[in-house]
Amino acid sequence: MSTPAAVPPDRIRVTDALVARVAAHTALTVTGVIGLSPDLGHTLAGSVLGPDALRPPPPGASAVVQDGAAEIALSVSTRLGYNCRDLAVEVQRSVAAAVHSYTGLAAVVTVTIAEIALD
Amino acid sequence: MSPDDPAHPIAPLACGRDAATVWDRVAAGLAPDEHERGCPHCAAAIADARGLGGVVYRMAAEPVEPPSSVLDRVMQAVRTEFRQHELLALDSPLGPARLSRPAAAGVLRHVVDRMAGVRARSCRIEQPAGDAVPTGADVSITVAARFGVDLASVTARVRQMVIAAGGQALGVPVRRVDIDVVDLLDDLEPEDGP
């Protein structure tokens, strides 16, 4: 009598694009962030190389999920009047907390303030 | 068959039939059997399978054309990327934080332009290379000053304004400000400052 081969259980994978989307959504809720600014990596990921081609990651946000942790890169715009260092720290704190709360992943967030509106 | 069965970890349809079996029959081109013809769950699975097949075959037959905006977006990003190395490190306990050097210089020029009797012409910000924790930035700024003003007083005000803006607006401590007065301020140049 043969026994059925063991089948691995179903799994749920949190994709890079999902984490990037959560990060972008959260960053835009931080007071002082007025937008996201895409760089080359973000643009390529969203234009031609993204694995989730049907709905690419938002411009200005990218993420790599590996070994139960997420590395997130955000490029944001702000307005003169907000301290850039404090803003960057607040974005890092808020995004890491939101990603962990939503996905359970620990996150390291790299923030680049790419533009400062002077008006 | 149940979700607890290790050989079949995926739950069956509500009628008890395995969705994979239904899909396999569709893929094999078999007509629905008696159960499938009367079962709404199997009918939905059959529709799913046929719908996917239709999409796949249709997409496979379509020529691949990248969106017209791809080239523009990539070229814009490439130009931006050339400036990406122009970043200032921000002191953050939570990971890497950076500030665009051109954006920071724009802020310093802007605050100087708001002062009376002086206008910024160029601004460069440098940080010591290799510092794990950014210790401070050196600013070199060129200005034009109105004829007749006290240059020592004006440059002292510019220096103080740059140091204050670096700390308060940028979060980048400024440890040194070099000022070159390179031009006379044109009388026709409008003044925004007080």
Question: Any overview of this molecule?
Answer:
- The complex is a heterodimer of chains A (119) and B (194).
- With 119 residues, chain A is an alpha+beta fold.
- Helices cover 34% and strands 28% of the residues of chain A.
- Chain A is built from three helices and four strands.
- In chain A, strands 1, 2, 3 and 4 form a four-stranded mixed beta sheet that branches.
- In chain A, helix 1 (16-27) crosses helix 3 (84-103).
- Chain A is elongated.
- Residues 48-52 of chain A have low confidence and may be disordered.
- A three-stranded mixed beta sheet of chain B has the order 3-4-5, covered by helices on one side.
- Chain B has two domains: 1-65, no CATH class; 82-184, Cation efflux protein, cytoplasmic domain (Alpha-Beta Plaits, 2-Layer Sandwich).
- In chain B, helix 1 packs across helix 3 (40-61).
- Chain B has helices at 19-27, 34-38, 40-61, 69-82, 101-113, 151-170, and strands at 87-89, 97-100, 118-126, 137-145, 174-184.
- Chain B contains six helices and five strands.
- Chains A and B meet through helix 2, helix 3 and strand 4 of A and helix 4, strand 2, helix 5 and helix 6 of B.
Which structural category do the helix and sheet elements of chain B fall into?
alpha+beta
Instruction: Let me know the number of strands of chain B.
Output: 5
Instruction: Assign the structural class of chain A, choosing from mainly alpha, mainly beta, alpha/beta, alpha+beta, or little secondary structure.
Output: alpha+beta
- What percent strand of chain A? 25-35%
Termini gap of chain A = 78 Å
